[in-house]
Amino acid sequence: MNAAPADQRRLLEIADADARTRQAEALRRTPPQAARVQELLAARQTQSHELALRSGALDDLRAELARVESDVRVVDARRSRDAELLRTVSNPKDAAGLEHELASLTKRKSDLEDAELALMERLEAAESAVAEQEALIAETNAEGARLSAEAKAVVAETTALLEQLARDRAAVAGSVPAALLAMYERLAARGSGAALLRARTCGGCHMVLSGTDLQAIRAIPVDEVATCPECGCILVRTEESGL
Ligand SMILES: [Zn+2]
Q1: Cα(200) to centroid(ligand 1), Å
Q2: How far is Cα 179 from Cα 225, in angstroms, rounded to an integer?
Q3: Which end of the chain, N or C, is more open, meaning fewer C-beta atoms within 10 Å of its C-beta?
Q4: Average pLDDT, integer, range 114-126
């Protein structure tokens, strides 16, 4: 195919825009923060599950403490009642019975108070465990929010870049003859559409061309399209080509 050297060189700009577009599309699909955001989402699920367990344990302890406190109130009421009765009772047998009950209520109250203290200690530990887990989740959320915002910014920047690249490419493509552009598009669909031949090396496949291949390329007039014998892309020849 015939093509002016200047038009062939424009294909390099188009190929460059296409390569940058592919990179930008990949970046927009998967911003660098995406993997860590996924990790954080999974971590938060595990952390929330652990928080639910710790909160459940804390609730159980609170319920247990409430039961013990209620038992203490029952014992206190009973003790007041017995003490009141003891003041009025005249039968020694009844008095002995009440005294015996009062003694056992005192023992019961002391046991309940011991249990209460032990529970309060466990409650304090459980509250710390919950607070610790909440802090961990807050940290995870904060990192996730920061990275999501960063990823959004990357997507926005990349979207703007893609629009710019599309405009630039269209401007260059508009000045390239349709047949040459069509040839480029056809080749670009399966690899490098066009590449610079630099120092005897194809910029598309990075192969150093053999002497025979270079001989054949030298024989092709500059206003005719040459292709790489290795990868088939349009080889754009310049003074850097080493021909
Ligand atoms: Zn090649």
Answers
A1: 11
A2: 11
A3: N
A4: 98
Q: How far does the centroid of ligand 1 lie from the alpha carbon of residue 240, in Å? A: 16
Cα→Cα distances 141→56, 132, 136, 227, Å:
22, 14, 9, 54
Q: Is-contact 175 10, C-beta < 8 A?
A: yes
Cβ(6)–Cβ(188) under 8 Å? Answer: no
Among 185, 187, 142, 135, CA closest to 40: 142
User: In 10 A of CB 23, how many CB atoms?
Assistant: 13
Contact (CB, 8 A) for 2 and 150: no
pLDDT in tens, 18-43: 999 999 999 999 999 999 999 999 99
Q: Would you call 101 helix, strand, or coil by DSSP?
A: helix
Tell me the C-alpha distance between 120 and 43, whole Å.
31
How many Å lie between the centroid of ligand 1 and the Cα of residue 173? 22
The residue written with tokens 């188009």 in the block is: 14
C-alpha 229 to ligand 1 mean position (Å)? 7
User: What is the distance between the alpha carbons of residues 242 and 123, in angstroms, rounded to a whole number?
Assistant: 81
Ligand 1 center to residue 11 CA distance, Å?
Answer: 15
pLDDT digits (tens, 9 = 90+) for 127-160: 999 999 999 999 999 999 999 999 999 999 999 9
- In the chain, count H helices and then E strands: 5, 4
User: Which residues have beta carbons under 5 A from ligand 1 (an ion)?
Assistant: 202, 204-205, 228, 230-231
Compute, in angstroms, the gap from residue 33 CA to the centroid of ligand 1: 35
